[in-house]
C-alpha cells in the first residue's frame, strides 16, 4: 500500500512523512524528488530546458510508478510518499499506473490556511544555501499558491484532507496514521488497467449531437480526453467490443452494430506497444438525450462533453486528434479510411 501525502510547498509533507514512517508498522519513506534530481543529471540540457518542472517529464512520472512498484515488491509493507501533485492529469497518470499494478493508494492532503503557508514560506531556509537560493525557493513556493488554490476543487474531492496549521509534525503524522488504520482515508477509487504486454486492438465509438459535435469522455486513470470505447478482448469482434464498452462506460445500449469510420495503425512508442485503433459511428445522440441517458462509472470516467473539431484539438493528445479528424472526414465522405500513424494510406 502507498500513503501519498500531497499539499503545496511548505505544507509540511516531507517532515510529516518522515514521522509517519516511524509510526506505521513496516513502512518505508520514498521521496520522488530524488528521481527528479537524477533526471537533472541524466537528461541532456536541451531536454531539461523544454520544461519548467521535472513533473512535466513523462519519464519522471513513469519512473515514480516503476520505482514505487519495485520498492514494494522488494520490501512489502507501506510506502510513505511525500510529493506535491497539483495537476489532475498527472495524478491520474501516476495513480492509474499504480492501480494497474494492483497497488492501493491512500491519498492525504495537508491543507493549512494560506496565512500559515505564507508564514512558513517566509521563514523557510535551505541548509547551507546562499541567500539568493533561499530567495528563489521562497518565490517558487509563493508562485505555486494560486496553482494550489485552483487545484483544491479536485484535491479535496479526491483526498482525505487534514488541516495541519495548528498541529505539530507528530500530531499530523498521528492523524494520518489513525485515518489509515480506520480507513477514514479510503483507497483511491480508480479503475485498474494493466499495461499491455503486446500490441492491442481498441475500438472507439463516436456519437454526434444535433450540432454535429462529437462526444468525448475524461478518464480518471490516464491523462487526456478520450473516445468512448476500449480494448477488444480475446475472441471478440471489434464492433461488438465498441458496443459493449459504451454500454459499460456510458450506459448507452446500441440497437445496431455501428458503421466503421477509421482503421488506424498506431506505431509502438515505448513503453507502449501500439496496435490497431478502430473508430465507429454510433450515430446521433442529442445533448438533451445524452443528459438523460448517460450514466458514468465513478472509478473510470470523470465527465463527458460534446465538442467541436477545433475544441477537440485542445483536449485530445495529438495522435488521437488526428484519428478523430480523419474519422470526421470519413463520415462526411461516406466511406471508411485506413490510416497508418494517423495518416491516410491508399
Query: In percent, how much strand structure appears in the residues?
Result: 15-25%
Q: What's the number of structural domains?
A: 2
pLDDT averaged over residues: 90
- According to CATH, the fold-level topology of the largest domain is Rossmann fold
CATH homologous group name of the largest domain: P-loop containing nucleotide triphosphate hydrolases
Brief characterization of the structure:
It is elongated and about 70 Å long. The protein has 346 residues and is an alpha/beta fold. It has 13 helices and 13 strands.
Key terms:
Nucleoside Triphosphate Pyrophosphohydrolase, five-stranded parallel beta sheet, 21% strand, 13 helices, six-stranded mixed beta sheet, Rossmann fold, elongated, 43% helix, 346 residues, 2 domains, alpha/beta
Amino acid at each position: 500500500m502507498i500513503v501519498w501525502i500531497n499539499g503545496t510547498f511548505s505544507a509540511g509533507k516531507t517532515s510529516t512523512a518522515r514521522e509517519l514512517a516511524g509510526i506505521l508498522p513496516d513502512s518505508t519513506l520514498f521521496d520522488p524528488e530524488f528521481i527528479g534530481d537524477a533526471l537533472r543529471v541524466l537528461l541532456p540540457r536541451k531536454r531539461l530546458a523544454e520544461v519548467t518542472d521535472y513533473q512535466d517529464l513523462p519519464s519522471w512520472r513513469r519512473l515514480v510508478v516503476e520505482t514505487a512498484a519495485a520498492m514494494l515488491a522488494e520490501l512489502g509493507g507501506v510506502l510513505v510518499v511525500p510529493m506535491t501533485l497539483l495537476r489532475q492529469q498527472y495524478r491520474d497518470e501516476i495513480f492509474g499506473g499504480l492501480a494497474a499494478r494492483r497497488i492501493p493508494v491512500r491519498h492525504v492532503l495537508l491543507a493549512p490556511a494560506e496565512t500559515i503557508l505564507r508564514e512558513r514560506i517566509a521563514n523557510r531556509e535551505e541548509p547551507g544555501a546562499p541567500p539568493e537560493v533561499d530567495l528563489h525557493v521562497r518565490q517558487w513556493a509563493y508562485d505555486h499558491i494560486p496553482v494550489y488554490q485552483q487545484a483544491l476543487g479536485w484535491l479535496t474531492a479526491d483526498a482525505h484532507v487534514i488541516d495541519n496549521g495548528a498541529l505539530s509534525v507528530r500530531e499530523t503524522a498521528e492523524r494520518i496514521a489513525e485515518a489509515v488504520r480506520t480507513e477514514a482515508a479510503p483507497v483511491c477509487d480508480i479503475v485498474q488497467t494493466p499495461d499491455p504486454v503486446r500490441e492491442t486492438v481498441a475500438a472507439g465509438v463516436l456519437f454526434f449531437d444535433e450540432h454535429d459535435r462529437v462526444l468525448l469522455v475524461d478518464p480518471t486513470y490516464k491523462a487526456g480526453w478520450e473516445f468512448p470505447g476500449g480494448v477488444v478482448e480475446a475472441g471478440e469482434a471489434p464492433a461488438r467490443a465498441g458496443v459493449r464498452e459504451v454500454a459499460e462506460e456510458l450506459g448507452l445500449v446500441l440497437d445496431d452494430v455501428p458503421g466503421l469510420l477509421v482503421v488506424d495503425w498506431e506505431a509502438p512508442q515505448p513503453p507502449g506497444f501500439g496496435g490497431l485503433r478502430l473508430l465507429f459511428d454510433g450515430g446521433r445522440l442529442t445533448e438533451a438525450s445524452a443528459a438523460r441517458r448517460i450514466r458514468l462509472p465513478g472509478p473510470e470516467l470523470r465527465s463527458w462533453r460534446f465538442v467541436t473539431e477545433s475544441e477537440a484539438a485542445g483536449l485530445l493528445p495529438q495522435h488521437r486528434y488526428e484519428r478523430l479528424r480523419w474519422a470526421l472526414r470519413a463520415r462526411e465522405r461516406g466511406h471508411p479510411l485506413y490510416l497508418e500513424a494517423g495518416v491516410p494510406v491508399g
